[in-house]
Specification:
four-stranded antiparallel β-sheet, 196 residues, mainly beta
Length: 196
């Protein structure tokens, strides 16, 4: 009987202590581009993603604008001539990603970009048909080079570790497979991905 009284008082306390604590925050949208998707967050809370027209989709080559949300301000990273999909951001507000063109008949093509010092630039040191995934505060990124044709663009993919000032390092997949990298740890010691 004494044990049941203790459990009765402890269960509500334990259940309360284990509930996740989080906050949902609306980041807003860009002018005339109300459909927004967050794609990456930094350790300090910078968020990147893209916004497009209502009902638009990158599957159908809708124009997208990348954004950076930092310290309560949503910034448009600028118009480009093709859909822009950011996939990594660090605490300094540097953003990496890829221009993505999806053609359901011909396949997918990508090319990497880097947003730094107020402008979108070419991401040097990475293969021209690769997409960057994740970005550390030291500037390291994981990347996946994809084939230019076919619906499954991981058929001839290759994974890389990209370190500023050095050539991209190929990450070997399992024997007889192709590699794909999709994320990097904050220290740059680990790359997450797959052998395909």
């Amino acid at each position: 009987m004494h044990c049941y009284k203790v459990l009765f008082f402890l269960l509500p306390i334990c259940a309360y202590a284990q509930q996740p604590q989080y906050m949902i925050q609306d980041l807003g949208s860009l002018p005339n581009l109300p459909s927004c998707t967050g794609t990456a967050i930094s350790q300090s809370g910078n968020v990147t993603g893209y916004c497009g027209p209502a009902g638009g989709s990158i599957l159908f080559a809708a124009d997208t604008h990348a954004f950076l949300y930092s310290k309560g301000v949503l910034t448009d990273l600028g118009a480009t001539s093709q859909p822009t999909v950011p996939t990594g951001v660090n605490d300094a507000g540097t953003v990496v990603g890829a221009y993505v063109v999806i053609n359901l008949a011909k396949g997918v093509s990508v090319s990497p970009f880097l947003y730094q010092n107020g402008s979108i630039q070419t991401f040097s040191g990475i293969p021209s048909n690769a997409g960057a995934f994740g970005l550390t505060n030291a500037g390291q990124s994981a990347a996946t080079q994809v084939s230019q044709g076919g619906v499954n663009f991981f058929v001839a993919s290759e994974a890389f570790l990209v370190t500023p000032g050095s050539p991209a390092t190929s990450l070997p997949p399992s024997k007889g497979m192709h590699g794909a990298a999709f994320g990097i740890s904050p220290s740059g010691d680990w790359v997450a991905g797959a052998s395909v």
